[in-house]
Design goal:
Structural class: mainly alpha
Distance between the termini: 35 Å
Number of domains: 1
Strand content: under 5%
Radius of gyration: 27 Å
Oligomer: single chain
Order of helices and strands: HHHHHHHHHH
Shape: rod-shaped
Largest sheet: none
Number of strands: 0
């Protein structure tokens, strides 16, 4: 992706340079030189503001996605620990259901979130069954009563965190924002080429520097635009770390 973006930006910059250089003859050259260099700072500031606006969005989405995954993992870990208050079949069953949910999330939901195809239509069967099981338990001691209440709360927290990560998996920068950013970059490159059209060597240097900055900004935003897709994305590592030992051992 980085190579494609760099190539596209440099090709556009080269095209701008060649076109402006070819047009900068006669009266047109005088017209280009009449453009005030004072135009460049405002254009650059607007471009920087757009980059900051989009970067803030993608970083916020990434932080929220990480937080949602961490909350889900913490809630599932709490269920596993609290299940020990109901030794025997209830504890084993709760651990099995939590482990099954983690496996399902890591192997099926994460690829689906990366492609943006997962939805909230169906509730996770394992967590739903675990919730029903915890509500059907018959606590005999005050400790078991408190544990049952906390298990239900933790399962509800896990379900809510899952909903949040699925919603965030659909987050992306819409085409209008991309068009505004790229249009502003293009206008700035064209203005630079016109202002420095009488000095080709300086023009090439300045255009290359700004084009590299544009490419770097676009790469930065594009690489973080989807929290659960790409090389820089939120992974299910934390959830796999809380896999119940009784479930993880056979694997």
């Amino acid at each position: 992706m980085s190579l494609v973006i760099l190539a596209a930006v440099y090709l556009f910059t080269a095209a701008v340079y060649l076109i402006i250089t070819r047009l900068a003859v006669g009266d047109r050259a005088k017209t280009f030189k009449a453009i005030s260099p004072g135009m460049l700072p405002p254009l650059s500031v607007v471009f920087a503001l757009l980059v900051g606006f989009l970067a803030a969005q993608v970083w916020s989405d990434g932080q929220q996605a990480n937080a949602a995954v961490n909350r889900e993992a913490s809630a599932l870990r709490a269920v596993v620990l609290l299940a020990a208050a109901f030794p025997g079949e209830p504890e084993r069953r709760l651990q099995e259901l939590v482990g099954r949910h983690i496996q399902e999330a890591a192997t099926n939901e994460w690829p689906a979130m990366a492609s943006g195809h997962v939805t909230l239509t169906l509730a996770p069967a394992s967590l739903a069954e675990a919730l029903h099981l915890s509500l059907s338990l018959s606590p005999q001691t005050p400790g078991q009563i408190a544990a049952q209440r906390e298990i239900v709360t933790a399962l509800q927290a896990a379900l809510d965190a899952r909903r949040q990560r699925i919603i965030l998996s659909h987050s992306a920068i819409n085409p209008v924002k991309w068009m505004a950013l790229l249009a502003q970059a293009g206008l700035t490159l064209i203005t630079i080429a016109m202002v420095h059209s009488d000095n080709r060597a300086a023009n090439r240097i300045i255009l290359t520097i700004f084009a590299t900055g544009v490419a770097a900004a676009v790469i930065l935003i594009a690489s973080h635009s989807r929290p659960f897709s790409g090389e820089i994305s939120v992974r299910p590592t934390v959830m796999l770390q809380v896999m119940p030992e009784a479930v993880a051992a056979p694997r």
